[in-house]
Amino acid sequence: MIARVVRLNEASLEGSVVLLTLHDVTGIKRAERMRADFVANASHELRTPLSSLIGFLETLRGPAADDAEARDRFLGIMHDQAVRMSRLVSDLMSLSRIEMEEHTQPTAAIEVGAVLDGIVNGLQIRAGERQITVERTYSQLPAVVGDTEALTQIFQNLIENALKYGRKGSHVRIEAWPVSDGTTRRGRRLDQPSLAISVIDQGEGIPREHLPRLTERFYRVDPARSRELGGTGLGLAIVKHLVNRHRGLLEIESELGKGSRFTVYLPLAGSNRGSQAAE
Ligand code: ADP
Q1: Quick check: 142 pLDDT over 70?
Q2: Which of 2, 5, 15, 203 would be 165's cystine partner, CB 3.0–4.6 Å?
Q3: 214: Cβ below 6 Å to ligand 1?
Q4: Could you tell me if the CB of 220 is within 6 A of ligand 1?
Q5: What is the pLDDT, as a whole number, of residue 4?
Q6: pTM for the model
Q7: 208-to-213, 239, 254, 257 alpha-carbon distances in Å
Q8: Span 186-197, pLDDT tens digits
Q9: Kind and range of the H or E run holding 176
Q10: What separation in Å is there between the alpha carbon of 223 and the centre of ligand 1?
């Protein structure tokens, strides 16, 4: 807390008017700290693949110059590191764009079923690589208020995570239903008629103590595993921001050894818009 005293009438002390202003700077300090942490984390995430690229390049120009087998192997690793950096830069750009647009609410009526179908079709090859079957348990869905690009990004991230963290040979299920009683799966009240969409995987699940922090930038349950799977640690932070922009809600449930369910609640088109916050 910072207190500032301003004397409005300097000439006569006796009759002076004193204005005392109190500023709570804890929020500002926390925001500054988060910003500094974010820049430090982002720099670290970029520097790791960059150092590896430089190291391999130097080896290729020196000791491994005439070793064809080593060259092919190193080029493969360098390619993976460059892809990782490129993915990280595009996630960082997405986050910064989303933050700038945070206060603009989408207004279009979107057929979210078509959005989900497009994503699932586009991910069939990736699902096949892990022998995962994607099931959809919905048919006709009511329109939601949204933005097609943002909704695509939300569900692309959630379904990609389900394919990444789901067990090989397992199933990923997408369920969708209009919420009739105004209550979420975890018992929260929705202040507007909503459509719920769950992405459910059969993975290892997430320990309970991690759930509240999953949507923080760069927060990972197992950082080494996330990096190995090509993750940037920004996917769920992006999802949270975009869901907030839709005045929707994100709920995460998970059971160790069984899997996880990420549910997004979106306002139905034609409903009164209120505001709810993602976790
Ligand atoms: P990442 O790029 O690491 O996947 P995300 O922001 O998408 O980053 O997710 C943050 C972390 O949450 C992941 O590193 C992982 O530990 C955990 N996570 C996300 N989705 C799942 C899931 N479906 N099953 C298990 N863990 C998950």
Answers
A1: yes
A2: 203
A3: yes
A4: yes
A5: 62
A6: 0.86
A7: 10, 20, 7, 12
A8: 999 999 999 999
A9: strand 171-178
A10: 9
Are the beta carbons of 195 and 111 closer than 8 angstroms?
Answer: no
Q: Which two tokens stand for residue 266?
A: 């979106």
Q: What is the DSSP string of 11-37?
A: S-STT--EEEEEE--HHHHHHHHHHHH
Residues contacting 179, CB < 8 A, separation 6+: 190, 193, 194, 195, 196, 265
Reduced to 3 states (helix: H, G, I; strand: E, B; else coil), residue 194 is strand
In testing the pocket of ligand 1, which one of 236, 238, 279 has its CB within 8 Å of the most ligand atoms?
236
Mutate to test the pocket of ligand 1, among 167, 206, 225 (most ligand atoms within 8 A of CB): 206
Q: Looking at ligand 1, which residue's alpha carbon is closest to its atom 3? A: 233
Residues 239/211, Cβ–Cβ less than 8 Å? no
- HSE-up of residue 90 (Cα within 13 Å, Cβ side): 7
For ligand 1, whether the C-beta of 252 sits within 6 Å is no
Ligand 1 test: best mutation among 156, 208, 226, most atoms within 8 Å of CB?
Answer: 226
